[in-house]
Amino acid sequence: MPSILDNFSTDNPVFSTYVFYTTVLIIKTLFMALLTVVHRVKNKAVASKEDSPKGIVLFSKDVERQRRAHLNDLENIPIFIIVAFLYTLTSPSTFIAVNLIRLFTLCRIVHTFVYAIYPTQPARGISFGIGILITFYMSFQVAIYFY
């Protein structure tokens, strides 16, 4: 009888895909923090009075858009990472699992581009929506499997 630990092997394409794309998502999230700093410097917008030599906080629409995009990642990516990990425990179809993980990652990258870099609708809403649907699907599959 296979052990649940068999799922955590580099021989398991679902787990290998999970590890690789989770790493991509983590790097992307860290990159968003750096991009926020770049926008702050470019727009001379500081986060708080103590960061400003004159004690003046300047508002920048570009910085705020970048911050919201980063916050959106922080609200969605960690949840996906946890749910996708649990989903790997359900021994899902390799084809479905690998492509859902890839699609979620692609959607988050597209979402960043159409939110923080080149604001575009409906692309932003579609990329966000697909990512949420994938997370819900995996969540339901985990709940059903372990119920």
Task: Describe the protein.
- The chain has 147 residues and is mostly helical.
- Helix 1 (13-43) runs parallel beside helix 3 (94-117) and helix 2 (61-88) runs antiparallel to helix 3.
- 73% of the residues lie in helices and 0% in strands.
- 25% of the residues are buried.
- It has four helices and no strands.
- The longest helix has 31 residues, at 13-43.
- It has helices at 13-43, 61-88, 94-117, 123-146.
- The two termini are 20 Å apart.
Name the CATH class. Answer: Mainly Alpha
Which overall shape is indicated by the principal axes computed on the Cα atoms?
elongated
Largest sheet: none
Stated plainly, the CATH topology is called: Four Helix Bundle (Hemerythrin (Met), subunit A)
How far the N terminus sits from the C terminus, by CA atoms, comes to 20 Å
Radius of gyration over C-alpha positions, nearest whole angstrom = 19 Å
- Give the uncertain stretches in residue-range form: none
Strand content: under 5%
Helix content: over 70%
Beta-strand segment tally: 0
Mean of residue pLDDT values: 90
User: Helices and strands: which structural class?
Assistant: mainly alpha
Determine the CATH superfamily: Membrane associated eicosanoid/glutathione metabolism-like domain
Task: Looking at this protein, list some descriptive labels.
mainly alpha; Four Helix Bundle (Hemerythrin (Met), subunit A); 73% helix
Write the layout of secondary structure elements.
Elements: H1 13-43, H2 61-88, H3 94-117, H4 123-146
Helix pairs in contact: 1-2, 1-3, 2-3, 2-4, 3-4
